Backbone:
């Protein structure tokens, strides 16, 4: 029951422990169940630990696209992506001892919340999670990425951001049999060994040890207000056959890497609702992250099962919000838990299929900025060690005489 409770905590992120427990047993009033107190639920979490949830996630993790799933494959290989994000943690002493806060550039003052770095390997077509690695943000992304490379196989094409273009990581990736397409940093100036007819050229990384093909392109974005933005891309790939893998199509394909950002939006904005994690101990943080990934991947597998009833349905039309809300309803009402008729689609699947997103949506862009809120209060200047603290209040009542002179105290 504790395992179900921890999984439910990720479904109802806004709710307290007792409120989540109440939702789990909402349809069992006739049984007169005893409702445990918050401290009992906390201790139960600690006894269970993170290992069962890690095992659950690793059981569910993996690709879910079928051979004919739209958008899951490109000219043969299955497209996957590796990318990272940060999760905010409570500002407690045990957490701060393991997870550091960020510092402003050029300053030694920490700000914000302690951070956890999360990296995932996702299937671009369905946004299913194949593997995950996480820990303190002080550890670099490439270190976490290396832990997931064993989940890559021959027949996969990994899309990578600029920070993953280092020779050691790419060489390890190629040893799995997978291919890669990554954006190369501007500081790297590859030598041209052979020019190709489509404008790309052959080169090498790592002192000639890793053959690559380089595609350079200018990307021009024209906004609705007439603003024009131009940016140069330099893509490096292990797909050296220019006739089978044209340069222009590689540039278009690279955009699929942003499916990882959609995955993180589903987890951080839709499931967590932009909130920090609730765990105040490092071992509980690990448990919560694995539980969060487990519930996310379970919902993705359900959506994949739903699309099997419509083979031509693009997974991009699936609403993760609908899947999440339907799952919450099933928990609180206990409906569809034991279905009258067993189908692959299920209650969540039918809700998804009844609320598909539009087949074509407007081309939109969002600046990576945040609107700063205004407040009449000063910033926390580290004068007080915690935002909320226990305190003792002492009041002294003074009896005044005429002329506002103190006469006696009581």
Residues:
């Amino acid at each position: 029951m504790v395992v179900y409770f921890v999984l439910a905590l990720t479904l109802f992120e806004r709710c307290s422990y007792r409120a989540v427990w109440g939702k789990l047993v909402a349809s069992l009033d006739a049984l007169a169940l005893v409702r445990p107190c918050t401290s009992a639920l906390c201790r139960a979490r600690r006894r269970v630990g993170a290992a069962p949830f890690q095992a659950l996630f690793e059981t569910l993790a993996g690709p879910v696209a079928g051979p004919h799933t739209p958008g899951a494959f490109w000219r043969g290989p299955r497209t996957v992506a590796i990318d990272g994000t940060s999760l905010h943690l409570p500002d407690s002493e045990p957490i701060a001892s393991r997870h550091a806060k960020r510092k402003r550039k050029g300053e030694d003052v920490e700000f914000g919340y302690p951070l956890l770095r999360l990296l995932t390997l996702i299937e671009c077509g369905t946004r299913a999670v194949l593997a995950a690695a996480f820990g303190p943000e002080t550890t670099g992304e490439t270190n976490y990425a290396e832990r997931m490379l064993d989940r890559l196989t021959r027949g996969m094409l990994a899309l990578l951001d600029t920070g993953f273009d280092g020779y050691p990581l790419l060489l390890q990736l190629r040893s799995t049999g997978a291919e890669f397409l990554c954006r190369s940093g501007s500081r790297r100036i590859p030598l041209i060994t052979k020019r190709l007819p489509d404008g790309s050229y052959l080169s090498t990384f790592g002192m000639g040890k890793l053959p690559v093909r380089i595609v350079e392109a200018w990307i021009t974005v024209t906004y609705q207000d007439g603003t024009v933005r131009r940016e140069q891309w330099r893509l490096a790939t292990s797909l050296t056959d220019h006739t089978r893998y044209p340069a222009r199509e590689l540039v278009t394909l690279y955009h699929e890497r942003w499916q990882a950002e959609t995955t993180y939006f589903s987890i951080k904005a839709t499931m967590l609702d932009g909130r920090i994690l609730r765990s105040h101990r490092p071992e509980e943080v690990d448990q919560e992250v694995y539980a969060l990934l487990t519930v996310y991947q379970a919902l993705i597998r359900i959506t994949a099962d739903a699309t099997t009833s419509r083979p031509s349905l693009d997974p991009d039309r699936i609403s993760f919000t609908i899947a999440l809300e339907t799952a919450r309803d099933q928990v609180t009402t206990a409906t569809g838990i034991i279905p009258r008729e067993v189908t692959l689609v299920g209650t969540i699947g039918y809700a998804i299929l009844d609320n598909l997103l539009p087949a074509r949506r407007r081309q939109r862009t969002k600046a990576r900025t945040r609107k700063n809120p205004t407040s009449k209060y000063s910033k926390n200047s580290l004068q007080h060690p915690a935002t909320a603290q226990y305190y003792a209040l002492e009041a002294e009542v003074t009896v005044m005489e005429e002329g506002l002179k103190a006469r006696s105290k009581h």
